[in-house]
Amino acid sequence: MSRVTIADVASAAGVSKTAVSFAFNNPDRLGQTTLERVLGVAHELGYTPHPAARALSMRRSGTIGVLIPQGLSTVFANPFFSELIQGLGEGCEEHDLTLLLVPPLDGSLEGAIRQASVDGFISLGLTPDDRALEVLDRIGIPTVQVDSVASAEHPAVNVDDAGGAEAAARHLLGLGHRRLAIIVLPPARGQVQSTPTAARRLAGYRKAIKDAGAPEPRALVAGISVAAGARAFETLSKDRQRPTGVLAMSDMTAIGVMSAAHSAGLHVPDDLSVVGFDDVPAAEWTNPPLTTVRQPIVEKGRLAARMLIQRMRGEAVESPAPLRTTLVIRNSTSEPTNLDLPIRRR
Amino acid sequence: MSRVTIADVASAAGVSKTAVSFAFNNPDRLGQTTLERVLGVAHELGYTPHPAARALSMRRSGTIGVLIPQGLSTVFANPFFSELIQGLGEGCEEHDLTLLLVPPLDGSLEGAIRQASVDGFISLGLTPDDRALEVLDRIGIPTVQVDSVASAEHPAVNVDDAGGAEAAARHLLGLGHRRLAIIVLPPARGQVQSTPTAARRLAGYRKAIKDAGAPEPRALVAGISVAAGARAFETLSKDRQRPTGVLAMSDMTAIGVMSAAHSAGLHVPDDLSVVGFDDVPAAEWTNPPLTTVRQPIVEKGRLAARMLIQRMRGEAVESPAPLRTTLVIRNSTSEPTNLDLPIRRR
DNA sequence: CCGCTTTACTAAATCGGTTTAGCCACAACG
DNA sequence: CGTTGTGGCTAAACCGATTTAGTAAAGCGG
Q1: What is the CATH number of the domain that holds A116?
Q2: Between chains, do B89 and A83 touch, taking CB under 8 Å as contact?
Q3: Of B63, B76, B255, which has the smallest distance from its Cβ to A285's Cβ?
Q4: CATH number of the structural domain spanning residue A45
Q5: Of the candidates B323, B181, B280, B55, which has an alpha carbon nearest to the alpha carbon of residue A117?
Q6: Mean local confidence (pLDDT), A2-15
Q7: CA distance A174 to B68
Q8: Most exposed of A319, B164, B253, B256 (fewest Cβ within 10 Å)?
């Protein structure tokens, strides 16, 4: 009771394998009667071409891989990623491509890349010297990067991280804040170096702060999760001089900060202003609604997918200009007050 | 400059293809010196086995497919799905499997199933008579269902939808609500019949309402999104007698209801109680925090993945008992007040 | 009726691996 | 010395499709 192959259909219909293949992929090359007979027999037997055999023979698998920087459970805890997948999905579905999620295989993406039977890759947040990139072009699979550094061989789609970050910091400074803390995105698996995205955002924050002549901000690294954001708040609140404003590089982290601040008896934004980054949908419903930097995540994904598809067709593609980011002011930021309010547990 | 194949490595190292294959998959069968030479040459040439060829030959691709009921952009707008993927991912990563997302191909899952080169499928929310199931066992790919109806051939992992729904309704009734509205999940692609999940939850709500002797609830179908929830509220608010409590089958929809209610000048929970379903992470941070029915989504995914992996090994698996659901009471529900308050726009 | 083009189909090569069966040289054993 | 292993390697079959090159028959103009 094994699988029905093309040979089974061929012999059942009294024709060659070629004829069966033609019936599906090149029907014009068969006569009316034969075509119908073959198709009939195939249907009756429940024949389905073996995808791997097809992929081997046609040199295309009809799927594109998404190189994700960490385990699925880490990455999908951030709605940012869901939105990106939505965009990638839109691009793919236009061309009947499926999406393969490729997380690192015991810590290494290179191994995982080899395993994957795909026609192209979307990579996320890779530093330019990541060894995964070498493997990719050694194998010769077209790749489009997201949130990385564009290069001739590896086009990338990015957003204006620096500009967004600068606007966020300027907003806080403009409200009168001087003691700021920055919560930095963690570096990628096994790396020390921060991701290109984190570096650009940090530069943006710093520029605004320097321009305003405000004191050097406290910067600390925290994971992208509500829990990590809460821990970051705990650390900050132990400082001699608690910051009055927090610039978080991720909405999830910002939400964690707000939640921990709330538990500590602080009021956001009166006692602490918080601004996030990404503008995930949830940012709109939090209490208070989160001031954050919007980036067009879905569009970013869609664009990346389309670029990759072009590349897979052999067409050249150029990295587009960084997509616009905009500051969305909601209610988690205000003028600093109660500057020296001690933290009271309630 | 095409791909390096096993034959290239073989001739460069002066051995047979078999030897090269052994070097990677069966190193014991080669002598020390040969082994090292082959491995060395392979590395030098940057050899990587072709995944499709490997899959064809070994009859396994190392990936499992997730049969998703709608387009990626629809499905991933619901955090429920992200969480499920987290669970599936945990199960997969334990065995170095990757995850292929398989959305319907122009409306039909059957076509998409054939395309996919996978060793097993996880299906979501299929009705027992869905034609996709026929295709699946005709091809003979092991499948585990999620949120469906278990059968001998197609084991399923489910949660206690009815119990959770009943608890939700009882909660509202216990607070004194009598005029309830139910927001039902939409049926799957192209179907009229509601999904098994929706049917079970509806039954649970109805049972509680009937037991309490409360009047027949208003039931209306709405998509799983904040926007759809908001539209549902608009519809409800046009009724002669606005409901005092809303039972939504999805947190996203519930959030939409709350948000629209807020815009209409109603206070949740004083003017309208809302209870959701799923307990996605965002439910905790909404304003007010959402009362909802928690189901162990990540665990559900993890369990489904593990069951599938067992099945792929040829072991028999039984459908487990439905996973427990628990009512999580937060602040979106209270005793009904202001019963006849007109809706004022503000 | 001849030569030439179409039409309808097939045999065999190909994609790039894994695996089975077996060969050969050498050592151990009786 | 003959037999029997055994370690180390290879030739060839196989996985299941697509595709190239080609053949036989039919059609057709002259």
Answers
A1: 3.40.50.2300
A2: no
A3: B255
A4: 1.10.260
A5: B55
A6: 94
A7: 47
A8: A319
